[in-house]
Amino acid sequence: MKIIIGSDHAGFPMKEKVKAFLQDRGLVVEDAGTISKESVDYTDFGKKVASKVSDNTFERGVLICGTGLGMSMVANRFKGVRAALANDLFSAIMSRRHNDSNILVMGGRLIGDTLALQLVETWLETPFDGGRHQERLAKMDIE
User: Fold this and answer.
1) Distance (Å, rounded) from C-alpha 62 to C-alpha 83?
2) pLDDT of 54-92, one tens digit each?
3) Which of 5, 9, 84, 92 has the fewest Cβ atoms nearer than 10 Å?
């Protein structure tokens, strides 16, 4: 699986840990930035990741900002993107099972690194249930 990851300055330290975790699992990871804790606009990095998931260059993405709220808002503007803000395990699981989320968003200022890695692992390993949930997904896209 190829994954693209991005963050703003508030999510940068966590992004680096998540990126290493994904690479250690043998996944191909593209880092869309940012590259430091220097202040940047989260929108720039949210767009980079969401556009690459939207056009199917990457199957999944991970975004991290201070709260996860801004990145979620940016990413969900892209066709076919289902970005899920998950700062707890139940949300990560259900975002995959019922919503087939393709971008995991986390708040770097809200959760610790240990939980972040648990969220990523759980999110990657949880399958989509399909069935009635697929029918609901079809209703999400606005033509």
Assistant:
1) 9
2) 999 999 999 999 999 999 999 999 999 999 999 999 999
3) 9
